[in-house]
Design a protein that fits this description.
The structure is a single chain. The chain is of the alpha/beta class and 407 residues long. 33% of the residues lie in helices and 24% in strands. The strands form five sheets. The chain has an eight-stranded mixed beta sheet, with helices on both faces. It has a five-stranded parallel beta sheet with strand order 2-1-3-4-5, sandwiched between helices. β9 and β10 form a beta hairpin. Bound molecules: cytidine-5'-monophosphate (C5P).
Length: 407
């Protein structure tokens, strides 16, 4: 297999790449480059032995981040300590994974930065083994592999063929494209296979005249992250998006709109659907007397008459064959009460409420925290990066969607 991943297949994913000391380390820069081409952020951690095969400078140049190697480096630890590195990662990829590194991983050792990060992280681990065929076949290695697999460590490869040492057999590290495909596959799940999901995201723009508009600070990040998480869960996703600067999520049908009325029309034209998720920050009002030519500056007051926009979510919930509907609510206080009120008022199935005003949370931020509420229950999804939170939210949506279908 030689095909590159689609762009954005790993959008905003944080991959911590451990490069351990084997000759296959020469392939690591290609792995980094391809992960980044697929949209991932890559932080490289080298073992001390890896430095005998490849320089940190090469990996720094391709990853765009300072390469980490030392466990006891006060300057680097002050910037992002080993525990923060462990928390930062969405996935830990070990490529190449030498026999020695796998043995240390199995034992739970923490005698260098790379092994300490593995021990301190909850992120899934994917290892691409690379070693001499005799070392691969050795019962000690096979025993380590079995123990690691039983603990949930996943493996990509090794392949078989001629080796750098002149021998032929299993132990060759897979090619970069295959390793990247295996990394992307880690995020794939089977929760909503074949389920049709329609989503709205981003802000809307309400024109004042041909060059001016009213809008809001919504970045679309949460909606785009949910679209990706839904697609990874097997759903067939259509994303109706207001203007954002985000790259289109891979594997999702994207419909670009500007105004609330465009969004309303685009959504209604795509019904029926199985699930509808409204993350868009739809402008509540539009300008009734928008000018068809640019309004010229004058000294007199300018009055804009605002009229209400359609409530898209409410219209979808009231449609002929309503899907499972999920709305969002940005609240500053009494989150649960307001969210329950919204559930009733809009006759929807679920509300995901975020407490706006918290530092680094909500609009335009990378992190969020959600209180998810449905008729007879609720769940708090604690603060996390929007990409991770989106996956947890999709778990809850899939669970409640299945519960509704079972009724
Ligand atoms: O009523 P409120 O604007 O607080 O409700 C927010 C929820 O309703 C969000 O899910 C938002 O996407 C959706 N909404 C909508 N159409 C509107 C206003 C809000 O779909 N015109």
């Amino acid at each position: 297999m030689d095909a590159a991943l689609p762009p954005n297949a790993l959008a905003a994913r944080r991959v911590l790449l451990i490069v351990s000391g084997g000759i296959a380390a020469y392939k690591a820069p290609d792995v980094v480059r391809r992960l980044r081409d697929a949209g991932a952020e890559v932080q490289v951690v080298m073992t001390p032995a890896a430095g005998a095969f490849i320089t940190p400078l090469t990996l720094q140049a391709v990853s765009g981040r300072e390469v980490r190697a030392e466990l006891f480096d006060p300057a680097a630890e002050a910037a992002m300590g080993h525990i923060e590195l462990a928390r930062w990662a969405d996935v830990i990829l070990i490529a190449p994974a030498t026999a020695d590194f796998l043995a240390r991983l199995r034992l739970g050792m923490a005698n260098d930065l790379a092994s300490a990060v593995c021990l301190a992280s909850e992120a899934p681990i994917l290892a691409a083994p690379a070693m001499n065929q005799q070392m691969w076949k050795h019962p000690a290695t096979q025993d380590n592999l079995a123990a690691l697999a039983a603990r949930g460590v996943r493996f990509a490869g090794p392949g078989a063929g001629s080796q750098a040492c002149g021998e032929v057999g299993p132990g060759r590290m897979l090619e970069a494209t295959e390793i990247c495909a295996a990394t992307a596959a880690l995020f794939e799940r089977d929760l909503l296979s074949g389920v049709r999901v329609l989503l709205t995201a981003g802000p809307t723009r309400e024109p004042i005249d041909p060059v001016r508009y009213i809008s809001n600070h919504s970045s679309g990040k949460m909606g785009y992250a949910i679209a990706t998480a839904l697609r990874e869960a097997g759903a067939i996703v259509t994303l109706v998006s207001g203007p954002t600067i985000l790259p289109p999520p891979a594997g999702v049908t994207l419909v670009n709109v500007e105004t609330a009325r465009d969004m309303h029309e685009a959504v209604m034209a795509r019904l029926p659907t199985d699930i509808f998720v409204a993350t868009a920050a739809v402008a509540d009002y539009r300008i009734d007397n928008a000018a068809s030519n640019k309004i010229k500056r004058s000294d007199s007051a300018l009055e804009l008459k605002l009229v209400p926009n359609p409530d898209i979510l409410k219209c979808v919930a009231a449609s002929a064959a309503p899907p499972f509907t999920v709305g969002f609510a940005a609240e500053t206080n009494d989150v649960e009460r307001h969210a329950r009120d919204k559930l009733e008022r809009k006759a929807i199935d679920m509300v995901a409420a975020n407490l706006v005003g918290g530092a680094g949370l909500g609009f335009n931020a990378d992190d969020n925290e959600l209180m998810v509420i449905w008729r007879d229950g609720s769940r708090l999804l604690p603060r996390a990066a929007k990409t991770r939170l989106a996956r947890t939210l999709v778990d809850v949506i899939a669970e409640r969607y299945a519960a509704r279908a079972a009724r």
